[in-house]
């Protein structure tokens, strides 16, 4: 009879109106975490900068900790100051496993690895017995191994449904073993708790899959509209929108400096004529990726666009024409030392560059653009592989 009453209490804790509120809040938090993760990972992919990657992964880990703290405060409010609840533990584990599956970075893995030690240490500090220390050690070792496996075999687990479910059960089962070592409960409850956890994760996964599908559609549309299919950088349409917005903002707020760089690939037609259009495509991709990577590594905040054919444009905010010239001249020289391998051929690539800063006297965007185009023409007339800044040819 007592056993049935205890199970009834467990049922009331896991399945009541407070639980519904917590489920909705948890789904909301995880949706926000998913959005944050997608936005940050998109930037990581585009920037390919080590410091940006570290910062993005740190922000993702911070969102996990903030979500767990918020859930703790919500439970304290709903339960008159108490957090001793099956539902509380279940949703916290849901946040941890979600982050492990979705974010998949070292910072989040470390949080999952340290959390069992934190829970046990906190319980001992509050005066709980160390009687079941061997149980904690055994469960912690299994849990840590599970976390490491999930982190490094994510694709395999998601490709096989039964493996995904098995590791969900293993993760939750060992976590409940850790909790049992400081808060002993009837082991017969474990199956009910694991079932509730799997149910939570099913609801969360359903919500996250819908959010991910929406984001994939949005990102695919954005990619098709704003990015060049061949090189992967922003296209002419994106440049037209971005550049005119910058020009309008400058006119209204006199922010500055703002500098435009235009460059094209020297003797590009010769690559197509001599080696074929596939070689020309390879050269375009090489130059676009090389310059974009150099800009990101130098933290210049320069945005590169493919304007058309072999022509590219960069918009620098907060950088003067002379500073942009020095940056681009360095990239220009470095590009010469990194030839492209195409089939058995080694193709040396150079570019010609024109640079001008937006001026208060520019009445229209076209005034600025034409001036930059003229400076690019001066570089080509000077023998190519040159940089012209405000009508002055840069010399090494």
Automatic annotation (TrEMBL):
Residues 256-392 form the GGDEF domain. It holds the Pfam family GGDEF. This is Diguanylate cyclase/phosphodiesterase, GGDEF domain. Keywords: Membrane, Transmembrane, Transmembrane helix. GO terms for biological process: cell adhesion involved in single-species biofilm formation; negative regulation of bacterial-type flagellum-dependent cell motility. The chain crosses the membrane at residues 20-39, 51-71, 83-100, 107-126, 132-152, 164-183, 189-208. It comes from the Bacteria. One of its GO terms (cellular component) is plasma membrane. GO terms for molecular function: diguanylate cyclase activity.
